[in-house]
Structure formats: C-alpha cells, structure tokens
Amino acid sequence: MVRRIKGQTIKLEGFNNLTKSLSFNIYDISYARSRESQIEYLEYIDEEYNSKRLETIVEEVTKIINAKLVHVSTQDYDPRGASVVALLNEDHPLAGIHGLPKADPAPCVLGHLDKSHIAIHTYPEYNALSGIATFRVDVDISTCGMISPLSALHFLIEELESDVVLIDYRVRGFTRDNHGAKLFIDHDISSIQDFIAADVLDEYTSYDVNIVSDNNFHTKMKRKVLRLKDYLFNDDDSSLSATERKRIRKALALEIQEIFECKALGPKMGPRA
C-alpha cells in the first residue's frame, strides 16, 4: 500500500487505520412573500430533496470517492425533511490483511463498516414574519483506508445549489509505515479549498480556519453575488417596488451573513408589507 505525503513516497504496513471525516453543511436561501408561497416552498423542497433524491446523491458520491455501497437506509419525515444513511466498503479486496484468511474476509469488512458511512439530513424552515426561507442539508462522510471524501466536494456544492457552505474535515487516528513508525495523515493537505475547483471558488467569498498540526481543517463559503430574482420563490421582482426590493435584498444579505458568521447580527427584518 503506497502513498505520497509531503513529497515522499510512503509504504504502509497492513491496513490503513486512518479515519477521514468530512462534515458538509449547505444553506439555500429564498424569499417567499405570502403564507401560501411559504407553504408551496416547503412542499417544493420536500419533493425536490426527498429520500429518493438524497439516495441518488449518495450513490454518486460513492462512485466519486471510489467506494462500494453496502447498505442504504432512507426515511422521509412528517411533516418535512428526509434522511439517508449508507454504509460503505472500499472497492478493493480486504482479505489477507493482518492474517485474515482470503476465503473469509467478513470479519475485516464488518469492522471496517463502523468507520465508513455517508449520512444526509435535510432541514427546511422559514420565518413567517420576514418571508425568509432557509433550507439546510447536512452531509457527513466518514471513511477509512485509501478512500477519501474530499474528492466529492465539487459535486456536492454544485448539486445542492449552495448559497452558504460550511465544511469541516478531520483526519483521526494513526496508521504505520512498513518500518512501524506512526503516520497521522497519509495525504498532503493545507486547506480544504485545495480540493475545490477554481471556477467554483470564484463564485464564493471563502475563509479558512485550519489547525494543520492537528489535521483539522475548516472552510466556509458564501456566494459573492446576490441577484434578487434568483431568490424569489413564486414571485417576479418587477412586481415589487424599489423600497420592497431593497428591503428584501437587505434581509437576504443579512440571513446569508449570519449563517456565514454563525451568529445573529441584527437588526431583524420586520413583517412583510
């Protein structure tokens, strides 16, 4: 098992015990003007991101990270929301590692599944007073062995139409090289942004908080351009007065900034006119 890290070729001893965990949160923001529009928005989100759609996303992520899908559990919730949890295996044989018989690799596989999974949960919500509707998707990918969740970032950001993206990546545990020395990471990384395509990054303002010595990385992103027409649900911006457009734009910008900074900034937008 050979990898490259910090410009050096490394050869691992037996099974790779490192766990790579990616926590990916996206927020899609909309403005629903009337009570009817708010209900329609929630129904739209519920249909657009039901458990079947999430299962399709999980299947694509599994292909991208070169893993094997072992089992999928899906659930749609009443009144809103959906979840998918999938167990993964590496796409190459695990038999023969640490003396396991090649004819019966099951013990190794079962132990491996505890650390390899994808979970997706959705959280639609809206503010009845302001008309701001915020849809959140949480994606958690945990892998061990050679497969890494980082290669799926580009697909997830584009597939989930993200206004704000919060990403945490951590490598835990240690493995050993063929001389017995501990290795606490098996790939080069200084920032999560290194694994996001340049054309995607260009659309966002991005900020990093990294503890490289602890193999702990955090990136948050928000869209640079706010086009009002892209945020109106069942509404035409031409039907709004200049004052109303300004008010809604300000409320949307505040919602995005609060999520980006993870704190309430205020003042809050008052009831709709």
Task: Give your account of this protein's structure.
- With 273 residues, this protein is an alpha+beta fold.
- It has a domain at 19-171 and 227-261: S-adenosylmethionine decarboxylase (4-Layer Sandwich).
- The protein has helices spanning 35-48, 51-64, 106-113, 153-159, 198-201, 242-261, and strands at 2-5, 8-11, 19-32, 67-76, 82-90, 117-126, 132-144, 164-172, 175-176, 182-183, 204-211, 216-223, 232-233.
- Strands 3, 4, 5, 6, 7, 8, 11, 12 and 13 form a 9-stranded mixed sheet that branches.
- It starts with a strand and ends in a 12-residue tail after the last helix.
What topology emerges from the helices and strands here?
Blueprint: E1 2-5, E2 8-11, E3 19-32, H1 35-48, H2 51-64, E4 67-76, E5 82-90, H3 106-113, E6 117-126, E7 132-144, H4 153-159, E8 164-172, E9 175-176, E10 182-183, H5 198-201, E11 204-211, E12 216-223, E13 232-233, H6 242-261
Parallel strand pairs: 3-13
Antiparallel strand pairs: 1-2, 3-7, 3-8, 4-5, 5-6, 6-7, 8-12, 9-10, 11-12
